[in-house]
Known about the structure:
The complex is a heterodimer.
Chain A: E1 7-10, E2 13-17, H1 24-37, E3 44-48, H2 54-67, E4 72-77, H3 80-89, E5 94-98, E6 107-113, H4 122-134, E7 148-150, H5 154-165, H6 168-171, E8 176-179, H7 185-195, E9 201-203, H8 220-225, H9 228-234, E10 238-242, E11 249-252, H10 264-275, E12 280-284, H11 290-297, E13 301-305, H12 309-316, E14 324-328, E15 334-335, H13 345-359, H14 363-368, E16 373-381, H15 387-398, E17 403-405, E18 410-413, E19 417-423, E20 429-437, H16 442-455
Helix pairs in contact in A: 1-2, 1-4, 3-5, 10-11, 10-13, 15-16
Chain B: E1 8-11, E2 14-18, H1 25-38, E3 43-48, H2 54-67, E4 71-77, H3 80-89, E5 94-98, E6 107-113, H4 122-134, E7 148-150, H5 154-164, H6 169-175, E8 178-182, H7 189-199, E9 203-207, H8 227-236, E10 240-244, E11 251-254, H9 263-277, E12 281-285, H10 291-298, E13 303-306, H11 310-319, E14 322-327, E15 332-334, H12 344-357, H13 362-368, E16 373-380, H14 386-396, E17 401-403, E18 408-412, E19 415-421, E20 427-434, H15 437-452
Parallel strand pairs in B: 3-4, 3-5, 4-7, 8-9, 8-10, 12-13, 12-14
Antiparallel strand pairs in B: 1-2, 2-6, 5-6, 10-11, 14-15, 16-20, 17-18, 18-19, 19-20
Helix pairs in contact in B: 1-2, 1-4, 3-5, 6-12, 9-10, 9-12
Amino acid sequence: MHRAKALRISPVGVRGIVGPGLTVTHALDFAAAFGTLLATDGPVLIGRDPRSSGQMLLPAAVSALLACGRDVIDLGIVSTPVLQHSIRRLNAAGGISLGASHNAAEWNALKFLGPGGTYLASSEAGELLDIYHLKKFDFVEWNHIGKLSKSTDALKTYLDELAEVFDFEKLRHFRIVVDCCNGTSSTILERVRDRFHWPLILINSRLEGKAFAHEPETSARMVGSQLGPLIQPLGADAGFLFDADADRIACATAQGEALSEELILPLVADGQLARMPGRIVLTNLSTTALVDEVARQRGGEVVRVPVGRQAAIDALSGYLPDQIAVAGEGTGAVMLPQFRFVYDGIAAMLMILTIMADRGQALHEIVAGFPKYEMLKGEVPLKQMRIPQLYSELREAFGQEGRANTLDGLRVDWHDHWFHVRVSQTEPLVRVICESRGEAPQALFDGLMEQVRRLA
Amino acid sequence: MSKREHLLKIGVSGIRGVVGGFLTPGLACEFAQAFGTYVDKGRVVLGRDTRTSGEMLENAVTAGLLAAGCEVIQVGVLPTPTIQMYVAAIGAAGGIALTASHNPPEYNALKLFNHAGLFFNHYERAELLDLYHQSDFYQATNEEMRGVQVHSARPMALHLERVLKHIDADLIRSRRFRVALDGVNGAGSEMSVHFLRDVLGCELHAMSVDPTQIFPREAEPRPDTLGELAALVRREGCQIGFGQDPDGDRLAVCDETGVVIDNDDVLALVADAALERVEGDVVVNLTTSSVIDAVAQRHGRRVFRTPVGEANVVEGMQSVHTAIGGEGSNGGVIFPAVHLCRDSYTGMAFLLNRLASSPGTVSERVAALPAFHRRGSKVKFEHGRLGPLMQSLEAAYPDAECNRSDGLKLSFADGWIHVRASNTEPLLRIAAEATTVARAEQLQSAVEALLTAR
């Protein structure tokens, strides 16, 4: 069981604890499978977060891609969104991002990106996995092997694109503290600081391979650990916390109060819908109902899909980009159509600041304008695997007058509260979430947990 | 035997094969991880020749070494001897050179060195191979992960400094020799141009010294592959021409008339120069020409013979006080005062020093060596027949002096026969040498008839 928890190979990619779980061979074979899968011409881009194991995984992936006849451009230590932007700008065939995002330093992962920098659709991801398992790779003859080059101008063009969407002249008057968690956001924000003359205050900005200043998790708890207490003494307008590869954020008010990560999506949705009324907010079944209320006020619509990035990516492919206001989840990860649906923490931060600037309101004032929702979350280890029985009994016991949704586990909605019980995709756990407008639904939560413990 | 066998060989000499479907990045990475496990998380020097697969394998091997918890010192494109010396110089735990030496461009290989910068000996190789087959490699965690350092200029400088200690560079510079060079676009291309032109002040006429291009000729420097070098020597009126192989360990030499000299004579000329400067005996393989005996005798030194193969010669050199060693037949000069490895730079330096310090052209010096005539051929044999064949051969020459350390060598007063099985194919290689052409031909045809008789 210990080993099983150290490695996860799924259509989303491969992720694990380096050494006991994720090995150099996984990286090499997965990259070879990716090189075999790619249909379009062009180079493959590669980048990594600062984890020390990235130094080992990167050349492994590079060697496999070169052996498949692909030219490889190494962008060095860059965030996943920057890599995705570069794939599109350079017309590359795809890319591999090495980094374990919000996981602890001993983890690492390979994420595969298609042409245009998009995440792989489920069908492509499934094919990648098939090639990986078959281990039949298209290695080329000696005179067709690819060449490796390095590029350092990815950040510059990324900043060019940010400047097209955001008004830095306006935003640079905010006094902001950012906790970079020793990750890739620091390299971007240092450039933003210099180029737009914006005196951002960065903490934990040194790239670190082995020991992050704290867990790279974007949660209210983590905001409270170092960032929150600094904001008032520094007289800042807001504080932001990034994970190691800068694709998600958490934030805090000028008073140093950490906001729930659940508030990031409603905030960004509010700002986006004000500019693009009537569009769709795409999120998953576990996200706060606040987003429905925000969307309703702005004349938008919420579409909910199963939990996980892959479901969001597949759902997005069914819409035109100009139908969508924002796509995101309750973890603080959001994608904007202006940035071709890439989870991008920098863009999310700039969008929240833009809302503050446009309304002339402080962050706590904007949040205070939202109705109050209270969410309770729990998890129960999966032992008996009597999942169908669990769902039907829960529905019987708790879902009598509610509206049931069985797209991903069981979600039941009433007019002012809801619950969602599902089996995790990443760990052997049953997750229980319930939320209510006003007071926390403690009785419902306790009842659910008891039932789940009995049957999970 | 299927053809496939020769496209990939994992054995005691390391791992060598055709890139593409055979020598894959995965194999290289695993082998490197086994090596990294064997050297127990130490520093490992990694360099390569100019093959198109070099960069790909460099990445695979770097990943495998890091995964085993090693620190990787990348030295980039450099001759094999330069890499070997650097391993010892910085006190690394080992080294890997990515080169298939004189093999065609579709091949590549991992050459493995121990902490002293020497080829793995028999025991080290066997132990590593066991580790590889057990697949129980060390898997370093993020916490244990060490990094990559790039050392670019130091290795070359160190190698050339060592060579220069043994020659009179000022004297060579004062002569402004006209020298031709064929670098086969190999790992030595830039270093050789720098050494001959900038360091030794030669008027250099160089061809195929672009490391970004593929090999323009067959990679092994032999008389039949060095036609262009010979033409260059004649066209530019050069006093000497040098031909290297892709990883700069082998050296072929062309005289001022455009004749590519026999490799045994090159070894003899270099040995003659070396023995003049340093004490010690000579160690060569069993198949090296007797011309070396004549040269050693002139200096009052002994000649020791070892089985064929650089690692064997080096092992032999370590067990006696050796001034110089080598393998005549394949153009390798090993001068231990520089390093215990084949080194074309030592060869070039000694030959130029000799030209500068005493009168006579290259062709005149070759002519002054005692003449031996060599004949060779290959015959197939059936598995299981090797023993009886060797016994019948020995029985046919009861008066010969017999050496069984690598196949069978039978020595006579006026010549010798050496028969050994190939390591890679069911073939017997026959070499015969004598003081006259007639005797060499007679020995060779008699042996061949005996070995092919039913």
